[in-house]
Write a structure and sequence with these properties.
Helix content is 6%, strand content 48%. By secondary structure, it is mainly β. The protein is globular. The N and C termini lie far apart (60 Å).
Length: 385
């Protein structure tokens, strides 16, 4: 009788593990280099060789039947994959090693933004401002807000900054999440983008305002007004701010002094803008809807090239732009000549993330095949480790 009960307990335990574990958390079929394994490869190594690219690593994420990979995030030295059921996998960007794999929110809750500040990931999940441990994926702290949250939150060493559907920027103490002050644009427009620094906070609005305030009180430092709504987040590069505007222009505004900012240039592109620009050391790339992807010289605003079928920048390396197209191809453009150099069939690729920090390409399909590519030619790349 005792032996029979022990056997039953063992069987129940095994059944529980089979039901609750996602294929030992990550039962990856890891494929690093080597010969083509047929349909296992997201993109054939032979095709990539034509464009002087190689597969650094490829993994199969633990995506369940009926669940799809929804988004990829690049944050620091990690890449995060989020499913449509809010299951998240964190991987080391260089080697593809899994850091954690777990649900971070109930299915259906919107997850807005994912930023790293010191040793915590910051995100907005539903109406909660949350901090997540980047090593485990476990939620450490959360603050429920009594209003809808419009865009990703920002923080500095002292405060969190949260844009509410009440058209106010709410400033909370970083330690206890108690509100210190709130501020609004004079025209009461919606705040759609926030940048936080130790010396200033900048926010953009759907009326085209870019406003800088002191970080610890609602004192305005300067304001720049564009003609129409700002499309997507404002991108900071040093003391320069780049943003797309629905007046069909891309803007560069430099913060010259704490109390002064100036328009350096604006560049008109064909089409109403909905997405933020991608900013690299020398180029600004802007998606223009039906006008495709436009490359603009970062310093002079001079037109460099336009790819009508271009959707987004995948990455940039040695004067070449690697562009995802609406025909599911990867096109390599020469930024010096403006000419198309290579094209690779990316028919199986349905998810990607724009990378402006180093020279690697991250692509995936909705079933969770995730691959990291890098160029094969020349000397070590910008950002290579």
């Amino acid at each position: 009788m005792l032996r029979s009960r022990s056997t039953m307990v063992l069987l129940v335990s095994l059944l529980f593990l089979c039901v609750t574990t996602r294929a030992p958390l990550l039962a990856f079929a890891r494929k690093q280099g080597g010969a083509d394994a047929g349909s296992r490869w997201l993109v054939s190594p032979e095709l990539l060789e034509h464009a002087k690219l190689k597969i650094l690593w490829q993994d199969q994420l633990p995506i369940k039947k009926g669940e799809n990979l929804e988004r990829l995030f690049i944050v620091g030295n990690r890449i995060y994959a989020l499913s449509d059921q809010n299951y998240m996998v964190s991987l080391d960007r260089v080697k593809g090693k899994v850091i954690f794999s777990r649900p971070i929110a109930a299915a259906g809750l919107p997850v807005v933004g994912l930023e790293l500040y010191q040793d915590k990931l910051i995100s907005v999940i539903g109406n909660r401002l949350v901090e997540i441990d980047p090593e485990t994926g476990i939620e450490n702290r959360a603050k429920y807000m009594e209003f809808g949250i419009v865009c990703p939150a920002a923080r500095n060493s002292s405060y969190f900054y949260v844009s509410g559907a009440d058209r106010r920027l709410h400033t909370l103490h970083a330690d206890n999440r108690v509100q210190v002050f709130e501020v609004a644009a004079e025209n009461d427009s919606m705040i759609t983008s926030i940048i936080a620094d130790e010396a200033f906070v900048v926010f953009g609005t759907d009326a085209g305002n870019v406003i800088s305030i002191t970080p610890d009180r609602p004192k305005r430092l300067w304001q720049f007004d564009a003609a129409d709504a700002i499309a997507g987040p404002i991108v900071r590069d040093g003391m320069s701010l780049f943003f797309a505007n629905k007046d069909t222009n891309v803007y560069r505004v430099d913060m010259v002094e704490p109390m002064w900012a100036k328009l350096v240039w604006k560049h008109q592109v064909p089409g109403v803008l909905q997405m933020p620009p991608r900013v690299t050391p020398e180029v600004v790339y802007q998606y223009t809807g039906s006008g495709g992807l436009t490359a603009i010289n970062k310093q002079s605003s001079k037109f460099m090239w336009r790819l009508p079928e271009g959707v987004d920048l995948s990455m940039e390396a040695r004067g070449k732009a690697y562009v995802i197209t609406n025909a599911r191809t990867l096109v390599v453009m020469d930024n010096t000549t403006g000419k198309l150099l290579y094209s690779v069939n990316f028919a199986a690729v349905s998810r990607f993330v724009a990378n402006t920090t180093d020279s690697r390409i991250y692509i995936a399909d909705e079933r969770g095949r995730l691959a990291c590519l890098e160029p094969t030619e020349g000397t070590p790349l910008r950002g290579a480790e």
